[in-house]
Amino acid sequence: MSSQGRRSAPLPKGWASRTRPRILRRDKHACQWPVITGGICGEPANQVDHKIPTHLGGQDCDANYWALCQWHHDQKTGREASAVAHAKPPRSRPAEAHPGLLP
Ligand SMILES: [Zn+2]
Question: How far is the CA of 17 from the centre of ligand 1 (A)?
Fold first, then answer.
């Protein structure tokens, strides 16, 4: 797995050797992502992720970790990345005309 350049903080000590396998075992190697129909995704999970990212105030504790399948991990990572991008102030972009003023 390639390292993720966006991580602002290093992973907690013992992550790979202890925390990650512990969370995967706790979550029975099943993706914990809640699905719209109720319940969880349940696909084989090989990722352990912060439910609430640390840059949004999430803690490095078991309660904030969950197992995710690769697909949901990618979805979540992508969404967080775009959320961060959207949080940035717009770069001196000219104000758009009010829709009501358009012909
Ligand atoms: Zn999943």
Answer: 23
pLDDT at 82: 78
What pLDDT does residue 41 have?
Answer: 97
CA of 19 relative to ligand 1 center, distance in Å: 20
Distance 68 CA to ligand 1 centre (A): 5
Distance separating alpha carbons of residues 45 and 33, to the nearest angstrom: 10
How far is residue 37's CA from residue 99's CA, in Å, rounded to a whole number? 38
pTM: 0.69
Q: Where do we find the tokens 């104000």?
A: 95
Ligand 1 centroid–CA 79 distance in Å is: 15
Give me the residue spans of the domains in the chain.
15-85
Q: How confident is the model at residue 2 (pLDDT cuts 50, 70, 90)?
A: very low
